[in-house]
C-alpha cells in the first residue's frame, strides 16, 4: 500500500511539474511549490489543472486510501500482515 501510494503521489507531482510544451498546463513555480506541499493539494491541483485526465478516476477514493495509509504508517493501530503470508 505504501509503494502504491508513493507512486501515485510521485506520478501526480511529476505530471504537474512537466513543461507546458508537454502537458499544455500553465502552472507557475510558486503554485507548483504550493501544490507540492501535501497530497491533498496535489490532487486539488490535478483536479483544477487537468480535469480531462481524470475521466473514470475517483479522487475521493484515492484520497481516502492515502489517509488510510498515513494512519497505518504513522499511528500504527496493530494491523499487519501475518509473517507467513508473504512467504506463501
Mean pLDDT, nearest integer?
A: 88
Detail the poorly predicted runs.
none
Count of all domains? 1
Helical content, roughly? 55-70%
User: Based on DSSP secondary structure assignment, what is the total number of beta strands?
Assistant: 0
- The oligomeric state of the chains shown is single chain
The DSSP helix count reads: 5
Counting helices, strands and paired strands, the structural category is mainly alpha
User: Beta-sheet strand percentage?
Assistant: under 5%
Radius of gyration: 16 Å
Listing every helix as H and every strand as E from the N terminus to the C terminus, the arrangement reads HHHHH
Structure described in brief:
Helix content is 62%, strand content 0%. It is built from five helices and no strands.
Structure report:
The structure is a single chain. By secondary structure, the chain is mostly helical. It has helices at residues 2-17, 20-23, 29-35, 39-49, 59-75. It is 62% helix and 0% strand. Helix 1 crosses helix 4. The model has no long low-confidence stretch (mean pLDDT 88).
Secondary structure elements and pairings:
Elements: H1 2-17, H2 20-23, H3 29-35, H4 39-49, H5 59-75
Helix pairs in contact: 1-4
What are the salient characteristics of this protein?
5 helices, 88 residues, 0% strand, mainly alpha, elongated
Amino acid at each position: 500500500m505504501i509503494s502504491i501510494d508513493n507512486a501515485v503521489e510521485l506520478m501526480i507531482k511529476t505530471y504537474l511539474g512537466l513543461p507546458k510544451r508537454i502537458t499544455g498546463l500553465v502552472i507557475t513555480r510558486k503554485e507548483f511549490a504550493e501544490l507540492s506541499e501535501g497530497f491533498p493539494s496535489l490532487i486539488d491541483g490535478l483536479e483544477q489543472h487537468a480535469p480531462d485526465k481524470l475521466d473514470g478516476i475517483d479522487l475521493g477514493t484515492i484520497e481516502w486510501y492515502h489517509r488510510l495509509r498515513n494512519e497505518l504508517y504513522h499511528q500504527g493501530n496493530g494491523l499487519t500482515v501475518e509473517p507467513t503470508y508473504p512467504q506463501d
